[in-house]
Specification:
This protein is α+β, with helices and mostly antiparallel strands. Strands 1-2-4-3 form a 4-stranded mixed β-sheet. The chain is globular, with a radius of gyration of 14 Å. Helix 3 packs antiparallel against helix 4 and helix 3 crosses helix 6.
Length: 127
């Protein structure tokens, strides 16, 4: 099953994996480990990112790691559509709507792409 994950990520999900690989290489001196087939990099940024089979995060929070792993599953499901359906909207939601979420008491994980990533992460990581 693990090999199918890699094959799908590097064929169907090639676009986000190339982006993830570039970010990985830019953070090559940071600690890394493998988590359910994904490459996890501990970076210094306060936010987290799941891009193809690459996960970048700072915290030790297993919930956040599971959520980001959910994005790797979305990458396999959506393939080249991932960036347009999940990636770009997620980055906009995270980067541009923080004040809006705070003012209106809206949970970050309430929008569909984040809620779906959380559900997938829980399903596949058993967290």
């Amino acid at each position: 099953m693990k090999y199918i994950y890699y094959i799908l990520q590097w064929t169907w999900g090639i676009l986000q994996n190339i982006i993830g690989l570039v970010i990985f290489l830019l953070n090559i001196n940071r600690p890394h480990y493998i988590y359910n087939g994904a490459v996890v990099t501990r970076w210094k940024r306060p936010d987290s990112l799941g891009m193809g089979m690459f996960i970048f995060h700072r915290s030790n929070d297993k919930y956040v790691l599971s959520h980001e792993y959910g994005h790797t599953i979305q990458s396999i499901i959506l393939g080249p559509l991932f960036l347009f359906v999940i990636g770009i909207p997620s980055i906009i939601w995270a980067g541009c709507f923080g004040d809006y979420r705070k003012r209106n008491n809206i949970d970050y994980y309430s929008v569909f792409q984040e809620k779906w990533a959380t559900e997938l992460g829980k399903k596949y990581t058993k967290i």
